């Protein structure tokens, strides 16, 4: 586990749960035969576990069942420049992440379909997925439902909490502005 001072770390399940509900896409990390595997998979909290699904073509699918894994949920990061403050500061990075460790296990098809419906309901207010949707029988052949036990977790919320309240609030604003600016710059580089 990497180091982070306690004033930037949260072990509150309510904070972590809210974070996962708002930012459900996780980096799924596993180790197999001395090789590290990563995938980006959305998870929801379902029956006190994290539930998602993995494509059967994904190399991680071959070894993930009954494996110890780490999930990292991401909300953003930002370089914080000393030029933004009147006090004598050094540059830093602020960020919001959640780390969770547990054991991954495959789940049965009916539970996977239930979790797909629950995930859609949680994330989409304009579309309702029904269990009788005509694409679900096709999709079931390409994906495998996956649950991860919640054995260990903590939030890593570094937002200049160790500074004054005004500094803390400005750092949060800078993170929001930086995220939007950098995302827009990157999106403008993409072409079809």
Low-confidence stretches: none
Q: In whole angstroms, how far apart are the ends?
A: 39 Å
Highest CATH level, the class:
Mainly Beta
Count of discrete alpha- or pi-helical segments spanning 4 or more residues: 4
Radius of gyration: 19 Å
Order of helices and strands: EHEEEEEEHHEEH
From the 3D structure, determine the CATH topology.
Pnp Oxidase, Chain A
Name the CATH homologous superfamily.
Electron Transport, Fmn-binding Protein, Chain A
Largest sheet: 9 strands, antiparallel
Provide structural commentary:
This is FMN-binding negative transcriptional regulator PaiB-like protein. It comes from Psychroflexus torquis (strain ATCC 700755 / CIP 106069 / ACAM 623). It holds the Pfam family FMN_bind_2. With about 190 residues, the chain is α+β, with helices and mostly antiparallel strands. It has a single domain (about 5-185), classed as Electron Transport, Fmn-binding Protein, Chain A (Pnp Oxidase, Chain A, Roll), CATH 2.30.110. About 25% of the residues lie in helices and about 35% in strands. It has four helices and nine strands, in the order E-H-E-E-E-E-E-E-H-H-E-E-H. Strands 1, 2, 3, 4, 5, 6, 7, 8 and 9 form a nine-stranded antiparallel beta sheet that branches. The longest helix is centred in the C-terminal third of the chain and has 23 residues, at about 165-185.
